[in-house]
Amino acid sequence: MTNTQSIDIIIVGAGAAGLMAARELSSAEKKVFVLEARDRIGGRVWSLPEKDFGYIAECGAEFVHGSATLTRRLMREAGLTFVPEEGEIWNVHGGMLEKQEYFLKKNDELRRKLENLQEDLSITDFLNIYFSGEDHEKLRSEIIRIVRGYDTADPEDVSTFELRDEWLGEKDLGLNEGKIKEGYGALLTFLKNESVKEGVEILLGSVVNTISWRKNSVRVRTEKGLSFSAKKIIVTVPLPVIPTINFEPAIDGAITAASNIGFGNVIKIILRFEHSWWYRVDDKDMSRFSFVLAGEGFSTWWTQYPNTLPILTGYMGGPIAKQYKNASDEELLGMALDALVSIFGVQKEVLQNLLVYSKVLNWVADPFTRGAYSYTSVRTKNAYKELAKPIENTIFFAGEALHPGTATATVESALGSGEDVASKILEIEENQIPNLANLNPNAML
């Protein structure tokens, strides 16, 4: 066990933000100790071994979104391979499968209304005000599906301003999307190994329940009764987990800020079949099928195209996922197969006979995640800035919600936030060291 008196910084959470911060701080010769609640590193990144599904399946984060300059730089350092996203996006309307053209490309009125919007409101309110009536029903349905299945957000709570920035900016759906062939887990393992080489210690299975602090001094206690002391602490747990930690004294401003940032819900399921039975549906050639957006429940599905593996991944996102927090894996598997029956018109018994292996990832029920990832709600306002501010230069927060720009709610954002907070700590410490060259030597006598 490390000598707790020599620790400079404790990091709570060994996900992307925590490991990135650990690497940056340890390379600057800071003594860093990481406490991770799970029995593995990664947090919402969880890559399965190839033997399970015939490829490295992602239980959590899967896609590299947009330019992701930091992620791609780290991938090059780690020798990992970027695989561009390809294929066709399909949608279901009126029980019919049809190829989807991105909704902004075919609707100048929607683009104009978004660009001219002066006051923020939820996307539900925006659609009801500007696109009501039966003639816009298809558009409303398509947008709500994307908000739930892509942003995992509540349409009645998510900020239209935020969605506008996402849709009209770099996070335009499908722009520069791709995956890491070796899995996100390989990237985080690289960061872990880099950190450990610099002396970072990572203690798994350590649930933090209390953080006692005063300026430039923290003491952390775990559920197992272990105690660790340091000068500073970085908390990188998901937003809903922050209030479960007892801070002494309380940090009410940060807790309120965390609660005012939206946090989505998701249940993910990965299905392996004997063969890719969806290649032809009725008279439709779906051999290039990449994504499909459907109705309720498991409403978003994707393949591994251009990889021809017989794998389908389903996503239940938004408020409905929370309704099924306590559902069994068997119940969720049944719901997933029912969704495929509805989308593709295939018999459930056929799917059951073709199914080889399945895995349900109920992130809503996970006590160390309690959902999916962040989104900007109409209540958020200055919450991001508030939570990103260090408390007495002693308590720092980092994670996918706190990196500014278009990458929010992605692994890129988590990595960037970890890098940002490490730089902030190093800058603070540098400014606290007196410059001896500028001191009056007589004043030191």
From TrEMBL:
Family annotation (InterPro entries) = Amino_oxidase, FAD/NAD-bd_sf, Flavin_monoamine_oxidase
Q: Which domain of life is it from?
A: Bacteria
Which Pfam families does the record cross-reference, listed alphabetically? Amino_oxidase
Gene Ontology molecular-function annotations? oxidoreductase activity
Q: SUPFAM superfamilies attached here?
A: FAD-linked reductases, C-terminal domain, FAD/NAD(P)-binding domain
All copies of the Amine oxidase domain together span: 17-426
State the protein's name.
Amine oxidase domain-containing protein
What organism is recorded for this protein? Candidatus Taylorbacteria bacterium RIFCSPLOWO2_01_FULL_45_15b
